[in-house]
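Project outcomes to date are best conveyed with an example. Our students and postdoctoral researchers have been running inverse folding experiments weekly, and each run begins with a structure described purely in tokens. The record below, which covers 208 residues, was selected by the lab manager from last quarter's runs and is presented without edits.
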């Protein structure tokens, strides 16, 4: 098993145990969510369904999916430098504040946490989940993975399956959408087409 995966799993388990000692502030929302049981939280931590890919997030942004709420959990300074379109900034220390919790527990809204490498987003997921909020997800690989796959996609090599090329085409389109980069024209498209017009037949040249 991948060592990074083992480390991340252990970290998540430690965070899950740590949330047992979290006490909710009395001034939180008027209808606070029901706190998740520790054993349920531990089960949900190991479920891969809590992750969404960068491709899925890109598609939802492009399609202007109204159910998407992107929550950037990095510092306000990092958030001001770069984030995804439509994202809001809620660092972990703001989760228990009334303004921070306003973004969670909204029916029909899917919250996707993002951070640089996904680890901080994972921690935020555990904290919010422990507080009983639902429809929470983490963008796998974070913004680093976003840059690799959406902003700088690599062309698949020969012999790779057709689906790899389909995904590459989507990422190329997504890159244009998010960066506004111009499409590179190929040499063939730059070739000037010469139109040869036929001479009109005249009576003198032997026409009817």
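After processing, the design step wrote out the following sequence:
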């Amino acid at each position: 098993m991948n060592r990074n995966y083992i480390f991340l799993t252990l970290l998540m388990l430690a965070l899950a145990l740590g949330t047992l000692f979290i006490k909710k502030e009395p001034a939180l929302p008027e209808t606070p969510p029901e706190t998740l049981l520790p054993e349920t939280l531990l089960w949900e931590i190991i479920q891969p369904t809590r992750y969404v890919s960068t491709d899925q997030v890109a598609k939802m942004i492009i399609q202007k999916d109204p159910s998407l709420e992107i929550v950037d959990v990095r510092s306000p300074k990092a958030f001001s430098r770069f984030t995804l379109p439509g994202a809001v900034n809620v660092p972990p220390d703001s989760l228990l504040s009334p303004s921070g919790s306003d973004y969670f527990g909204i029916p029909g809204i899917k919250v996707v946490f993002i951070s640089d490498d996904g680890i901080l987003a994972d921690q935020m997921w555990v904290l919010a989940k422990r507080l009983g909020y639902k429809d929470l997800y983490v963008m796998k690989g974070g913004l680093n993975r976003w840059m690799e796959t959406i902003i700088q996609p690599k062309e698949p090599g020969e012999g790779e399956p057709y689906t790899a090329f389909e995904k590459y085409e989507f990422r190329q389109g997504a890159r244009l959408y998010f960066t506004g980069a111009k499409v590179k024209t190929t040499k063939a498209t730059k070739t000037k087409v010469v139109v040869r017009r036929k001479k009109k037949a005249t009576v003198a040249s032997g026409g009817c």
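Residues 19 and 127 are 7 Å apart (CA to CA). The beta strands are 51-52, 68-72, 88-89, 110-114, 136-139. The training component of this project remains on track.
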